[in-house]
Design a protein that fits this description.
The chain is built from 18 helices and eleven strands. By secondary structure, the protein is α+β, with helices and mostly antiparallel strands. The strands form three sheets. It has a five-stranded antiparallel beta sheet with strand order 2-1-5-4-3, sandwiched between helices. A four-stranded mixed beta sheet has the order 8-7-6-11. The protein has a two-stranded antiparallel ribbon with strand order 9-10. This is GAF domain-containing protein.
């Protein structure tokens, strides 16, 4: 039996090689010069997908360092108020204390990928300043390209990036391991913990150490939450249970609030889902940005402001804020739950919860992008798992019924004596015949 390789590990055997580095650099060069990558390129799927997102976001592989968005008093105030500030001693005890001796840097980011604390080996930190790997700089994937903290936040999973797997060439001398941190009570993404250094950081033991630190941090956050609760109830002024937005397979979203459910209009469904997606990265949206995400053509921001004003009256100011428009209350979505399950490799549970595309009747550009992204993640997860029961279930979905690659994979993994093989082979032949007749 072949042991499955953890897709998040950069160097499963713990050792880099010159041949691997050459292959990665050749694949990277082909991608940035032709915008295409052969299917047989020696690039891990998580890196291939990240490179594609980096390219689509307009990241320049030879561009300058990421921007520093928080400085001086603003940085200090933001850090002091951040949910991870109280657990920084845990991170220092488990990672930072040994980082200097091990020649590593430890960084803690917020959910938007901004570096809040950068500590560890002083010589390495001095070198890293040249690429703006400093407190206050934003290392989200859409700005800095493929990198462990940015990619861990993008896919919501622990991940390693080895040397030449970085999208920007200026970062390729480094390797890194990172994992996202969540609020253990609400499930909200709080940020990421990252270890950066030389090739040794891409070894499996470092990712194990980072994941263990995240587990300790989340345990400490849970304990702190309980300490704030009086006996027998919620803390005074604490928020009620998170609202839930259901958008999968629904023409109009359903918003479950503590006071009862609401059936939203199509436009309100789009706006609230887009704000929920923005909140996952720690950001809000301006009326201009929302107008572009909601309308295929040019739309006056004043129209969006009017809709948002009505939406705010409907859902309450405790959930929706303004300047910029953003969620101020806790909101989860069924789409985000599916995405998290896929990121953790739990494809079966993700399929069970996937009730259809995101707002299937919407033609808003932002919704189309989110719909295609989630559907693509689910498809890749199913094809990568190569399990008959998952492929059979996915093949019954609208997208799966006409996907020849899914039916081909299903035919390949079904046992020779399976009674389903004949029907699968016939359906695959019909799909291929339909393609040839076009």
């Amino acid at each position: 039996m072949t042991t499955a390789v953890n897709p998040w590990l950069a160097l499963p055997d713990g050792a880099p090689s010159a041949a691997r580095t050459r292959a990665l650099r050749a694949a990277h060069e082909q991608l940035v010069t032709t915008s295409a990558l052969p299917a047989d390129a020696a690039v891990r799927p998580v890196v291939r997908d990240s490179w594609s997102r980096s390219l689509g976001s307009g990241v320049d592989p030879d561009g300058g360092p990421p921007p520093v968005e928080l400085l001086d008093a603003d940085l200090l105030a933001y850090r002091a108020a951040h949910p991870l500030a109280p657990v920084l001693p845990v991170i220092r005890r488990l990672l930072v204390q040994d980082a200097e001796a091990a020649r590593m840097i430890v960084a803690v980011t917020d959910a938007a990928g901004r570096m809040l604390w950068v500590e560890g080996d002083r010589q390495l930190r001095s070198r890293a300043e040249g690429m703006n790997f400093v407190e206050g700089a934003r290392w989200s994937e859409d700005v800095a390209g493929t990198n462990a903290p940015g990619t861990a936040l993008a896919v919501d999973a622990p991940v390693q990036i080895y040397g030449s797997e970085h999208f920007r060439r200026g970062v390729q001398p480094w390797s890194c391991s990172a994992a996202p941190v969540h609020d253990p009570v609400t499930g909200a993404l709080l940020g990421a913990i990252d270890v950066t250094g030389g090739d040794v950081v891409a070894g499996p033991h470092v990712l194990t150490l980072v994941r263990a630190t995240v587990a300790a941090v989340e345990s400490e956050l849970r304990w702190l939450h309980r300490e704030r609760l009086p006996a027998g109830g919620l803390a005074a002024g604490s928020a009620p249970a998170a609202a839930r937005l259901e958008v999968l397979g629904r023409e109009r979203a359903r918003l479950a609030l503590p006071a009862g459910p609401l059936e939203l209009s199509v436009r309100h469904s789009e706006l609230l889902f887009l704000l929920a997606a923005a909140a996952a990265s720690g950001r809000g949206r301006t009326a201009v940005e929302l107008a572009a995400e909601c309308h295929a053509g040019t739309a006056a921001p004043v129209t969006v402001r009017a809709e948002l004003s009505r939406l705010r009256r409907l859902v309450g100011a405790e959930l929706l804020g303004s300047r910029p428009y953003r969620l101020v209350g806790r909101l989860t979505t069924d789409a985000d739950q599916v995405r998290r399950l896929i990121a953790r490799g739990e494809i079966g549970p993700a399929l069970e919860r996937y009730r259809g595309p995101v707002l299937p009747g919407s033609s808003a550009p932002g919704i189309l992008l989110a719909r295609d992204r989630l559907a693509g993640q689910l498809r890749r997860g199913v094809l990568g798992a190569r399990r008959p029961e998952l492929l059979l279930r996915y093949a019954q979905l609208p997208d799966g019924r006409t996907d020849a690659a899914v039916w081909q994979a299903l035919l390949e993994v079904l046992p020779p004596g399976s009674p389903r093989r004949a029907g699968v082979a016939a359906h695959l032949q019909q799909l291929r015949a339909g393609v040839r007749s076009r």
